[in-house]
Amino acid sequence: MLKGKIALVTGSTSGIGLAMARAFAEKGANVVLNGSRSPDEIELARVGIERDFSVKALYLAADMSVPAQIAQMMAEAERVFGSVDVLVNNAGIQHVEPIESFPVEKWDAIIAVNLSSAFHTIRAAAPGMKARGWGRIINTASAHALVASPFKSAYVAAKHGLAGLTKTAALEFARDGITVNAIAPGYVWTPLVERQIPDTMAARNLTRDQVVNDVLLEAQPTKEFVTPEQVAALAVFLASDEAKSITGAVLSIDGGWTAH
Ligand code: NAD
Question: Has the keyword Metal-binding been applied to this entry (predicted)?
Fold first, then answer.
């Protein structure tokens, strides 16, 4: 389905991004990985994709909070593979703290990585996609692109912003064969969620079990975590030709969270 196409997924060294990169590779795309982790773990993930799916996988280490590095990554991907056909803006970070004590540098970093990086990648990828008359841009938003939770001011603001950027880009590229959509997952069991448990315990004065059951899954009527593979399957569908009329959408995959 994606044979001969190039899929670049930011933040794809773990969690949802890695599951997406593997899912695109399974459909025949060559993939560009990005994100941080130990060099050994990254190489293991990269080689695993090449071995399992007989495609090429390239790793580019750009920091999504640095616009010049983002531009360099996009140029390098196009230089090596000739195009970026599927762009997934997935890199994301979180910080949980009340607004009054929320560190300013954390606010800046979250806005940079979770929102501004998508602006930088999209403006770099769009000319090539337009020239080829085909492109798929998929932004990993969140249920927090649609609703808020306390103590996540920067994350909620960035994800709402990402939904706005998604809609704007969809309108601008509507006649160019390029679709732009956001996926809005509820709680997915990944390192990002695991890492915020201690901060949420502190912010709300709760035990670990209380955070998992009463805070995280409290929002999710199914009482089950979404899996990275389920999110990846939605991304693969959005990249398909059958999904060409879906653009400007923010698609929930949240176990009913935003039905509340
Ligand atoms: P994760 O921590 O497993 O993955 C995040 C990825 O982003 C990693 O590869 C990490 O290296 C990368 N990253 C972080 N900062 C970066 C930077 N400055 N430059 C480049 N890469 C960077 O977390 P995840 O849960 O898989 O999150 C992936 C995306 O899904 C994020 O945008 C997150 O907001 C979103 N999301 C996650 C959940 C969830 O419950 N896990 C829910 C909704 C949305």
Answer: no
From the list 24, 155, 225, 257, the catalytic residue is: 155
Q: Token match 């798929």: residue?
A: 136
Alpha helices in the chain (DSSP H): 15-26, 39-53, 67-81, 104-111, 117-132, 153-172, 191-204, 208-210, 228-239
Domain that holds residue 147: 6-188+226-259
> Is position 82 within any domain?
yes
The model's confidence at residue 196, banded by pLDDT at 50, 70 and 90, is confident
State whether the beta carbon of 116 lies less than 6 angstroms from ligand 1.
no
- Tell me if the pTM is above 0.90: yes
Q: Is residue 203 part of a domain?
A: no
CATH of residue 22? 3.40.50.720
Asked if ipTM goes beyond 0.95, one says yes
Is any atom of ligand 1 closer than 6 Å to the C-beta of 63? yes
Q: If you search the block for the tokens 């004065």, which residue do you land on?
A: 205
Q: Is 190 in the pocket of ligand 1 (CB under 6 A)?
A: yes
Catalytic residue check, 155: yes
